[in-house]
Amino acid sequence: MSEPASISSGIAARYATAVFDLAREAGSLQTLETDADALAGALEASADLRDMIASPIYGREEQAAAITAVGRRLGLSELMLNTLALMASKRRLFVLPQLVSALRAMIAAEKGEVTAEVVSAKALTKAQSDALSKSLKARFGKTVKLQTSVDESLIGGLIVKVGSKMIDTSIRSQLAALQNAMKEVG
């Protein structure tokens, strides 16, 4: 991990731990999870938001006003709004994506869940998602929350990442393995 990324992760982890502990003490982990999901969705959907939190052009007051407006629009809790305002006043909004990831990981650990990143050639149906979740639960012994995405270049199959484990059943990887085997023979 590069030094700036390590610094960002460290900053995000400290904020995430503080917010998580406060939410747990208040018994509002469900609200915190909703807030984290809303922020993740907003960051994914809005290039303007990503630019605003990362750009040094905007001053503390501008960032605080913008993130407060976004937070109110998303219906975030007072705890999260106060955290975002504090981060803006300290010029730490650039770690917001890492904060959201850290919060999601802490909440999942508290609930006994693991997150599986699933990449498929086409969108999974509800039945396929349920079957995959059930299969992964049997394998890992924990409730599995799926984060799915589509990559048509896989041709078919799936790539599933759970923690440090990866299962690649894509046609693309099978073709690559076949191509390597053919090179060794010829």
Can you lay out the helices and strands and say which pair or pack?
Blueprint: H1 3-26, H2 29-45, H3 47-54, H4 60-74, H5 78-89, H6 96-111, E1 113-120, H7 126-140, E2 143-150, E3 158-162, E4 165-168, H8 171-185
Parallel strand pairs: 1-2
Antiparallel strand pairs: 1-3, 3-4
Helix pairs in contact: 1-6, 2-6, 4-5
- Radius of gyration, taken over Cα atoms and rounded to an integer in Å: 20 Å
- Per the CATH scheme, the topology name of the largest domain is Peroxidase, domain 1
Largest pleated sheet:
4 strands, mixed
Quickly count the helices.
8
Number of strands: 4
| CATH class designation of the largest domain | Mainly Alpha
The general outline is: globular
Mean pLDDT: 92
Strand order of the largest sheet: 2-1-3-4
The SSE order reads HHHHHHEHEEEH
Say which CATH homologous superfamily of the largest domain is assigned: N-terminal domain of the delta subunit of the F1F0-ATP synthase
Count of the domains: 2
Helix percent band = 55-70%
CATH architecture of the largest domain: Orthogonal Bundle
Distance between the termini: 39 Å
Strand content: 5-15%
Uncertain spans = none
Structural class, by secondary structure, is alpha+beta
Tell me what you see in this structure.
- The model has no long low-confidence stretch (mean pLDDT 92).
- This protein folds into two domains: 3-109, Peroxidase, domain 1, CATH 1.10.520.20; 113-185, Glutaredoxin, CATH 3.40.30.
- The protein has eight helices and four strands, in the order ααααααβαβββα.
- It is an alpha+beta fold and 186 residues long.
- The chain has a four-stranded mixed beta sheet.
